[in-house]
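B., you asked whether I could sanity-check this one before it goes into the benchmark set. Here's the sequence:
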Amino acid sequence: MERAEVLKRVIAILTDAQDIRRAAEAGESDGSGEAGEDGTGSPPTAGVATLLLNEMLPSIRVPADATPQQVAALVAEALGPALHTMVSGFSLAFTSLAMVHDSGRTDISSIGVLQELALEIEAGTYDEGP
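And here's what the prediction gave me:
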């Protein structure tokens, strides 16, 4: 999955988390921290974060006779780049939100900041980088 797509998925996870929080505050939660898809409080079959993580993380094939050290090396090799990109995405989103907060801006909501970030990503602003 390309960097821009991972960054957009991170924004989707954060946006979904805000929706879950708002639903919980409105009393639409089943107590598990996740609001139901239909607003009834029944838990969803799979959260957006779970679905997105399943799409973002690569599959790993481990030979049956692999040693623990080989398994660790295979897992690190497969997950390292994906996890690095995801952590970079969450860091970028956090930094964007923090900068708006620290500047004292009240003309934009956190969802608005995430939407602006998504537009910047779509425009290719963050195509390069670690």
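One thing to flag: Helices lie at 3-25, 48-56, 68-102, 110-122. Otherwise nothing jumped out at me.
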